What we know:
With 329 residues, this protein is mainly α. It has a single domain, classed as Transmembrane di-heme cytochromes, Chain C (Fumarate Reductase Cytochrome B subunit, Up-down Bundle), CATH 1.20.950.20. Helices cover 60% and strands 4% of the residues. It contains 14 helices and 2 strands; from the N terminus they run ααααββαααααααααα. Strands 1-2 form a two-stranded antiparallel sheet. α1 (2-21) crosses α9 (201-222), α1 (2-21) packs across α11 (251-266) and α5 (123-142) crosses α7. The chain is elongated, with a radius of gyration of 28 Å. The structure holds protoporphyrin IX containing FE (HEM). Protoporphyrin IX containing FE binds next to α5, α9, α10 and α11.
Amino acid sequence: MNLIAALIAVLILTLSALGIAFSATLSFLLTAILPYAAFTVFIGGFIYRIVKWAKAPVPFRITTTCGQQTSLPWIKNNPLESPSNVWSVMGRMALELFLFRSLFRNTDVAIVGQRPVYGSAKWLWFFGLLFHWSLLIIVLRHLRFFIEPITPWIKSLSTIDGFFEIGVPTLYLSDVAIVAGLTFLFLRRMTVPRLRYISLVTDYFALLLLLGIVTTGLLMRHFFPADLLHVKNLALGWVTFAPAAPKGVGTVFYIHLSFVFTLLVWFPSSKLMHMGGIFLSPTRNLANDNRMKRHLNPWNAPVKVHTYEEYEEEFRDKMKLAGLPVEKE
Ligand code: HEM
C-alpha cells in the first residue's frame, strides 16, 4: 500500500508537470517564481532544523565506541574507534562522511537451527556509497548551467566522468552508478520482508522521486535533448535575478524541474535531512574523554544534598533504638 501511495504521488507530480508544460502562465510560474520559492523553503527549512537540533541539550557524553579508549600510557588506545580529542573526532567523522565507515560494519543475522548466525553484509554499504557519491558528482556537474564561463574543474570533472566515451553524447559513469545505487536501494526495500514491513510511504517516495529526477535527466541527455543553450540562459537568469520563461526546452525538462523543486521543498521535513543531521549526532561528534575530564551536566538543578553524617546526626537515636549500626556513638 505504501509503495502504491508513493507511486501515485510521483504520478500526480508527473501529470501536473505535463499540464504546466502546456500552459504559458504555469510554465512561467515553474521557471520564474517556483525556483526562488523552493530554494527559500529549502535553505530556510534546513537552517531551522539544524538550529533546532543544535539547541537540543546534550547533558551526557554518549559517544559510540568500538575500541580502547585513552587511559593509562601503557594501554594502547584506538583514536578512531574511541576518539579522545577533537582531531580524532574529526578523523572518525571524515571516515563516516566520505566512506560510510559504520555502515561497512553492517551485519546480517539469520536463525540457523535454533542459533542466530551473524554474517557480513556489505551490499548496502557499497550501493549506498555509490548512490551518494554519484549524486554529489551529478550536482557538481550541473553547476555548468549556473556559471559562465564554466570553471576548469567542472569541465575536468565532466571529462573524467565521461572517460570511457561510450555513445554520443557520452554516457557518464556517475549516471550509471546512480541508477545502480537507487535500483538496489529500491529493490532492497521491496524484496526484504523485514524492510518492507517498516517502510513508510515517504521511504518509497524519496527513492522514487530521485529515480524520477535521474530518469528524466537521462531521457533529456540521451533521447529527448533539451536545448541546453536555453537551459543555461534560464539558469543564469535565476542566479542574476532576471528569470525569463524558456522556449524550446521540451516537456521532459519541465518534469525534471518539477521533481527537483518538489525535492527541495520536501527535503527539510524529510529523513533526507540526515545530510545535515549527521554532524549533530552526539554519538559521533563528541570525544570520549569521560575518564580524563569530569563532565558536569550544565543543566543540573541545584540539589540540596543530605550527607550520611547529617543523616546519622538526625536519626542516630532512632537508629540505635532499631538496633542499626551507627558510626558515632
Ligand atoms: C537535485 C538536483 C538534480 C539532480 C539530482 C539532477 C540529475 C540529473 C541527471 C542524473 C541527469 C542526466 C545527465 C547528467 O548526469 O548530467 C540530468 C540531466 C539534466 N539536468 Fe538535472 N538534476 C538536478 C537538477 C537540475 C536543475 C536545477 C536543472 C536546471 C538547470 C537541471 C537540468 C538538467 C538538464 C538540462 C539535463 C540534460 C543535460 C544534458 O543533456 O547533458 N537539472 N540531471
